[in-house]
Write a structure and sequence with these properties.
- This protein has helices spanning 2-17, 20-34, 45-65, 69-83, 92-105, 113-124, 130-143.
- It has two domains: 2-83, Uncharacterised protein YqeY/AIM41, N-terminal domain (Hypothetical Protein Yqey, Chain: A, domain1), CATH 1.10.1510.10; 92-143.
- With 144 residues, the chain is mainly alpha-helical.
- The radius of gyration is 18 Å and the shape is globular.
- 74% of the residues lie in helices and 0% in strands.
- It has seven helices and no strands.
C-alpha cells in the first residue's frame, strides 16, 4: 500500500507544521483507504481517494447552489489536498484531441454515446477526467 504510506508520512508532516485543515483531510483519506476491506466492490486505494474527492466536489456544487461561498472555498481547499495524492489528469484541450482521434477510428451514433464513453474510458481511463470526456463525446456525436 504505497498510497497509504505516503498519506501517513504527509499526516506526520502536517502534524509537525500545525496545519489542522490539511491534517483533517489527510486523516479522512487514510480512513477511506483503510476502509477498502469493508467495501464489497474492493476498490484500490487510488479509487478510494478519487471517490472521496468526488464527494467533496458534489458537496461544493450543492453549497454553491444555495449561496454559501465560504463553505465552497473550504471544500475546494480540501479537494486540492485530495488531488495531491491522485495522478494528474489531462486538460480539456488534450482530451478533446483524444476524443477526435477516438471518434475518427470508431463508428458511433448519437444514441450510442454511452457505449462510446465506456469504450473511450476503457482506453484512456486513468489519464482523462470522465466528466470532461463524456461531455465532449456527447457534443461531438450530437454534431455528427
Amino acid at each position: 500500500m504505497e498510497l497509504l504510506a505516503k498519506l501517513q508520512e504527509e499526516m506526520k508532516s502536517a502534524m509537525k507544521s500545525g496545519n489542522r485543515d490539511r491534517l483533517g483531510v489527510i486523516r479522512m483519506l487514510i480512513s477511506e483507504v483503510k476502509n477498502i476491506d469493508l467495501n464489497p466492490a474492493k476498490p484500490t486505494a487510488q479509487q478510494a481517494v478519487e471517490a472521496y474527492a468526488k464527494k467533496l466536489k458534489k458537496s461544493a456544487e450543492e453549497f454553491a447552489k444555495v449561496g454559501r461561498p465560504e463553505e465552497v472555498q473550504k471544500l475546494e481547499a480540501e479537494i486540492a489536498v485530495c488531488e495531491e495524492f491522485l495522478p494528474k489528469k489531462l486538460d480539456a484541450e488534450t482530451t478533446a484531441g483524444l476524443v477526435d482521434a477516438f471518434l475518427a477510428a470508431h463508428n458511433f451514433t448519437e444514441k450510442q454515446a454511452g457505449q462510446a464513453t465506456g469504450a473511450f474510458m476503457k482506453q484512456h481511463g486513468a489519464n482523462v477526467d470522465a466528466g470532461i470526456a463524456s461531455k465532449l463525446l456527447r457534443e461531438k456525436l450530437a454534431g455528427k
